Amino acid sequence: MGGELGKVLLVNTNQMKPPVVPLALDYLACALKKVNFEVDLLDLCFATDFASEIDHYLAENIVSAIAVTLRNTDDCHFGGQDFFIPRFKEITDRLKAKASVPLILGGAGFSVMPEAILEYCGLDFGIWGEGEYLLPLLLRRMVAGEDYHQVPGLVYRVGKSFGRNRPRYLKLEDVPAPERSTLDNRRYYDEGGMGAIETKRGCAQKCIYCADPLGKGRVVRCRSPQSVADEFAVLLKMGIDHFHLCDSEFNIPPTHARDVCLEIIKRGLGSKVRWYAYCSPVPFDEELAILFQKAGCAGINFGVDSGNDFMLRTLGRNFTVDDLARTARICHRQGLVFMYDLLLGGPGETRESLRESIDIMKRLSPSRVGASIGVRVFPGTKLASLVRKQGPIGKNPNLQGIIQGNDNFFAPIFCLSSALGADAPEYLASLIAGDERFFSSFTQAAERDYNYNENLVLVEAIKKGYRGAFWDILRRLSEKG
Q1: With the CA atoms of 375, 376, 379 and 384 taken in that order, what torsion angle do they form, in degrees rounded to the nearest 10?
Q2: CATH assignment at residue 234
Q3: pLDDT per residue as tens digits for the range 12-63
Q4: Taking CA 444 as the corner, what is the angle to CA 442 and CA 450, rounded to the nearest 5 degrees?
Q5: Domain end point (choices 113, 131, 164)
Q6: What is the pLDDT of residues 130-143, one digit of tens each?
Q7: C-alpha angle 179/235/134, rounded to 5°?
């Protein structure tokens, strides 16, 4: 019987708009219920006054523990630099004041710098990495009064410092499709424009800036195609037919992407769903492009970072500009809507290399190009190590954002090559000018604003019935206009 071990409250703190599905909480709730915990969700995404929401819930309910997720530390945009952790602390402070139960932090953002966030929030426990196995194990030991300090993935206070245990990752091929019944998935679809599914975890790529492997590991672990298709079917029954695959790069390994597509086609779902994915430009071939389309793919966001071979090598990418051209030709031939995402301003970027990237994007002509400038530096990444070797953080001319007193990269701090000059954002804006294929946080056109945090153009479009990936909604809006 469910609930025998008590009630666990899951708290979603992400308040970005349009709202993004807190997918991990749906997965986590399913895992907790399977081992006899009762689960409630306090979803503050839609709260106008989080304090009153917290007070009302805790006045009406008795819980054994509270697990709080931090999805993003900040908006990761040089043009925005919205820092989410202070608001996160306000929420955890309120929870701590109103409930005398274990308060456990987790989530993708938390896993990037768990000790620093625990210290900042004045809390004692967190789960680093995925929580479906680890959180139930921790809570069972707490309920039984057993020692829990050896639980894998646990980050815990020891005097004035913290201990951190190595995480344990799930074998995803053995995990059945979750029931997806804890979140109000339909509301997220109505207000956020798409559902979300994860087909695998972990990334073996060597991008110097990426914090994803810090929480999900560097070994790729794939779900069974049958489980993925089952989850599509579950959400489709809820009236959700547009999705985003949350994998870092869906086509790595390509055999898994192929098998997922084949299973979707086999089930007859390819004509019923529309989905988007993040992909690498390699490996990508004609056969995979055709399978994507037959399985219902509506658009692909390729993380290409640069159109300059030196910068691609510097950023740790394993492809070349020639590869970008080949993948673009395949997409054009197959009629696939696709976006090339640039991450400009990294170590060694010059005005010449930046201009070369923009010129090549214009020549390859993706459906859209995301042009971000300034690379968020996260602790634990190769980029952070490289920046430290350049000297004191506060005196480094290649860093922008919150520089002083931020030696651990806790607050938003960006690598922006000094060789670009003080007017780097303006220079980028001049290069893309009125070309509607480009999205950028520095554009003057609201429908091309590439910062999805508090993006009112997107919010209004979704209210009017637009569905799909945010970049593709913006694309369709500009083409309609």
Answers
A1: 20
A2: 3.80.30.20
A3: 999 999 999 999 999 999 999 999 999 999 999 999 999 999 999 999 999 9
A4: 50
A5: 164
A6: 999 999 999 999 99
A7: 35
pLDDT band at 481 (very low <50, low <70, confident <90, very high): low
If you average pLDDT over residues 208-234, what whole number do you get? Answer: 95
Q: Are 231 and 85 contained in the same domain?
A: no
β-partners of residue 197 are 245
- The CATH number covering residue 74 comes to 3.40.50.2300
Buried b (16+ CB within 10 A) or exposed e, 441-469: bbbeeebbbbbbbebebbeebbeeebbbb
CA proximity to 75, closest of 404, 374, 318, 458? 374
Which pair of structure tokens corresponds to residue 221?
A: 């672990």
Distance CA 175, CA 251 (A): 21
CA distance readout (Å), 422 to 5, 157, 270, 345:
58, 42, 49, 12
Does 100 lie in the same domain as 33?
Answer: yes
pTM for this entry = 0.95
Is there a single domain that holds both residue 205 and residue 246?
Answer: yes
Domain ranges, residue 159? 7-164
